[in-house]
Queue: 2 jobs
Job 1
Amino acid sequence: MIQALFLSPVFSPLFSPLFSVVSHGLGPVFSWIFWILFVAGVGWVFWRTIKGREVERRVIFLMMGLTVAGAVLTGIVLPVQETVVVRNIFDTIENLEEGDKVLLSLDYDPSGAPELQPMAIAVSQHCLEKKLKICYMTLWGTGGAMIADVITAIRPDFPELVYGEDYCNVGYRAGNEAVLKVIATDFRKTFPTDVSGIVLDSLPMMTGVTACPDFSYIVAIGSGRPGIKEWVEYVVEPSGALMGSGAAAVSAPQLYPYYPQQMNGMMGGSKGASEYEKMLRRGYPKYGEFRAQATEIMGPQTVAHVFLMLLIIFANISFFLAKKRKGASA
Amino acid sequence: MKRTIPWIITIVTGFVLVIAEFVPPWGKMREDVLIYFQIISVFAFFLGGGSLLKINLQKVFSKRTDWEYALVTVVGFFVMLALGLFKLGNPEMATAGYAADLNANGSWFKNLFDAVKAPLSASMYSLLAFFIASASYRAFRAKNSDATVLLVSAFIILMGQTFVGVVATGWMPDWVSFFKVENLSLWLLAKANLAGQRAILIGIALGIVSMSLRVILGIERTHLSGGDE
């Protein structure tokens, strides 16, 4: 959420000099100042709480802002624990054979990008390392820009890629669920051409693809409707296609009913993305040094969660103290 | 008439789609109907755009409160529409003509999207963090047993979503590994949450089936309101 602010194209240039300062030697000093301020702020909130005084909303806003900003600037990176839900997607792609086709649907807009774009990039890198062929599509009008950004991000690592042979982009079609219902049985009926108007039949990688089940694996990454749920209902269930997914953290719990029958794996929020990045780094050492966006996000997210948990604890202490005082005075 | 024709269209479409689902030779007809749906949904953009323009232009011309924002909306609408329709500044225009990819790198449409829409959307979503923090502090209290269960579950999920949970319960021996926060968090999501979500989903699905039947059979006609017979 808030980390999106610091990673957005407008704000990130403003913060990059600070990132640069931190990474050139002032890191530990800045880090100590941040942690001292963090502990002092939390202590102050705790003090007011046990005294039975309310903490103003704007103070909480300020502290949350400073907490995440400080965590971003200190560059905290924490270890990531892998889970089987994410590993299933990685293993499925790992076990596909060279030349197999993967359909990657990016159904989100810039608000979901900080969580979901790292998934799309990591899955794309993995597929291309395995020499799989990727077909990108989207059910969201804003998804076209997301696809363009993913392709721009991965191209430098794979300069030999040929459009139409190794990957293609069929873009967006209006119609939401209707698009899915049609491509489940006839892909070309909805997508006769790619995003630049090139007839799909003229793209070598699309030979033999008539419907969604012709793709060896589908990865739907989405943050709303139409998204993963619609993919399950209109494509996976009727056609039996194999699918994995990547969901925003807020929508992930609603999708667990479809795991593992309808989708064999799911990446939930930044945590799921960071797990995938970790598996990618372990399986392909060349990614050891690459800028793992989700892993970087997990540090600030963890600190924000800790702050949130402390607030909840303090609020409950305050609640019980007030109850006790009330009982004593009655 | 205004209600009868849409009602007949609803009945015919509904029956065709239901029958096509169960009678394989009609499968082709189902696909055709779905293509019609896609075409109609494109017209919805015209309707949406027209409605947006009508409301905002009225606001601008009558100089109602905050008419300046309406002006920004109208200008933004026309600028993006022009850049998208005429592919202005699109590097692919030379090769692909008007079929060029809207989001081609370097196109004015994509640049404006990246510079305005992307940061605005990200910033709006970011603000949630502040409100969640404030709401958690004020509302997340163990007032009764239900609220306590919710609070404990939320706490475990919060810890499980980060490395804090691993650190907090990493010392536990393997024979009680189920109680490690990351495992508890996964259990809550994949078992407890799953049971509740499936119950809700099945309930919703049954509701949709009964509502669809009512619409197809013409018993439910509220969606046709607004016109005279």
Job 2
Amino acid sequence: MQSPSASSVTAPRPGSPDPAAPAQPIIQLDHVSFSYGRGARRAVDDISLAIAPGEFVGVIGPSGAGKSTLASLMSGAIPHHYTGELYGATLVEGRDTCDVTLTDISRIVGSVLQDIDAQMVASVVEDEMLFGLENFGVPHQHIEKFITAALDAVGIADLRQREIATLSGGQKQKVAIAAILALAPRVLVLDEPTAALDPVSSETVFEILRALNRDEGITVVVIEQKVALLSEYCDRILVLNEGRLTLDGTPREVFAHSGELRAIGVDSPRTARISNSLAAAGLAPAGQPCLTVDEAYELVAGVVGASGGVGATDKKNTSYGARPAPVSPAASGAPAPAVAFEHVGFAYPAGGAAVTDLNLAVYPGEVFALIGQNGAGKTTATKLLNGLLQPTEGHVTVAGHDTRTTPVSVIARYAATLFQNPDRQLCKNTVLEEVAFGLELQGVNVVEAHERARAVIGRFGLPEDASPFSLSRGQRQMVALASVVVLKPQVIVLDEPTSGLDYRECMTVMQTVREMADAGSAVVMVCHDMEVVSDFADRAAVMADGRIIGCGTLDEVFANAALMERAYVAPPQVAALSARLAQGVSPAFANISEVAELVETVRRLAAERAGGPAAGGAGSAAGPDAGGASAAASLAAAPAGTAGPAVEKHAQEDADA
Amino acid sequence: MLNVIDYVPGNTLLHRLNPVTKLALAAAIIAATFLASSYAALVGLLVFTLALGLYAGVIRQLAGLLKVLVPVALIMLLLQVVFVRGGAPVAGFVTDEGLYTGGKACLRLLGVALPLILMLTVTKLNDLANACVEKLHIPYKYAFTFTTALRFVPVFSQEMNAIMEAQTARGVEFDTKNPFKKLSLMLPVCIPLLVTSVAKTDSTALAAEQRGFYLRTRASSYKRYPFRACDAAAFALCAVLIALGVLL
């Protein structure tokens, strides 16, 4: 495919690199702008940057910031595959991508696409590996060597003869990387390689990338939403917003700006938020964000001093007083559970993930999280809940209805599901019809259904006449969410509700869910993002190998290191940090799971240490509680596109600044 | 999830034949099925196909296919019996000629579908494409299109299942017993499927091009597919089958 308007306006060609630069950049963008189609908004707007050989670069930004477009520019897919208006010059190894064929660019830049199923061209791993090698005319006597090396580098030599369709998401991702790697590219460009993976597999993928970068000297450019991974593995982070390059620097430089990042909808590692808050309070040096739990531990230990038993008696007050949600409605003895699993067992006829002896009770008004590795049986559990699967043993009761005797379409009136991929849910021509559809299925008449749908659409700030498919990924998820909200269901099931969303969208979705729970719905959520779980869930069950191996309040679950390890779940940074601080510094840190709370505790302890216990302590107690109160207050005035408590909590961190 | 066209690994003679030979064998059985006019020959060819399937260890796939095809074949028989009016009446509107031709049509339907599926279950798609490019001089573009289309069948059926599940969970009555109602409910679901498939196809094209699709020639394939003695024997068998089809 030819680009209709390829650039010939090669602006000041940086032919004379400054003498201090170590080497000629392997990829260079020079005032590059691109829009898909004439007159469309510029997806990428006047970006100039240079990537040196051997760098490990992370790209982050909110949805629609132009991250995928940037990847397409680097890999030559723009201008050769996608057409539109292109200005400026993209140079790969000093040659303009407009002057070289896509095939020749891909000899240097290997790219792994977002949709991993579409990336595959064969049905067996070995053939997938062969495809590129054969095409590029690698001499046949060397092919075997290249295949073995690439498979070994990624650690999947045992998968060589497997059918790709039978592999897990993580394995497929590794195959895709290996297939590109076999071609010995000098640059790897990956578009959200871990979007569908659990935390452990995500970490493995980044370990592989790091090894390739270090040992083979391959330049890596990776688009990623998981900030903790980016900060740990990348040398350099590019932040995009609305098509422009906002920040460019080392993770430490970039995450020192956590306030600005939050404003554009990009999260920062929780440890960086802690150290930035402490810096703002004058307790830590500014501009030195902590990127790992270890660093944050050192910092806090330094500020507070290993003072031992100080504050031990206050522990209960601070940590539990801060959590406004009813910790365990079961304890209060009152309402009947909205969802009950009694000794539930299920096995797929063809084998595969099965669940055994699940016992759960989820009460109205709580957010209940199911956590565990991929394949632990979490999704099976949600399908048992909404009736898509029927238990082979035991009983599942949803709002008083046994799923074995009630048709799925009837259960749907009580339990609404929000799926990971909104595109599977959407089927109507306009947003309005889409949102009203669920109500109409329940027998609400068209006029009333549309009226109620309009109210919800207005709240979410969605365009009611637009076709759902013309919206962005994040907005499509909001449409799917709106069609759940409009039903006011007794039970809400969420299967990875935030994957593929940027930080702000994620907060909006979860905030809405929290409000629905506070209004009386019971929420069951499967989620890999432990930060989201720790921000929004009340209780959690940990699953491994189809069984529930632990269940309790979030604090209990995250504090149980043995349990977390057995389930291969990494506890969120704040929980990990507070557990270590409680052990090594002061018991006052026990069971803290939120940034603001931890920062307050540090301030209080630092103040005590300085000899003025009253000042810090009294003022601080109001902090987290105020956050909780505003969460309740925001219930009535449902915000459109803004996030409630979670964001307010952050606002508070900023206010501290 | 059992897919009828999935490759079933094995090391039988049938597996080891050149993919082009297997294609020829399937074509010969099909040709013979069309040429043959006696019941004995039609049943014989069907039994031969099933015996090959049994030998290659793919009988479960063939049985799965039969489960779908037999009802279709029976509908065909019924139509033939209704529309063929010649011959002596047997019972009611049924005539002996109707039964006779209808029965043959049924057998032909099965005889055409089974050999193709048998061939696909014992051949890796990539081998089939590469061998066709090498031996039959088919341009790789077409071979790739064909194998990709087949490869996407399970991908799309999974996608379709996921969409149906999502819609069921919303309250669309896919769990209805009425097949016509179910069919009318399925139509709107085709829209998301279409959207996903177009996006997937585009990404695949890009991924293939980024791995040198346009450089590929007949000599590119790493694996070679020479004809061996057993292939020659199989070709002889093909000739015999067609000859028998003409004679019987």
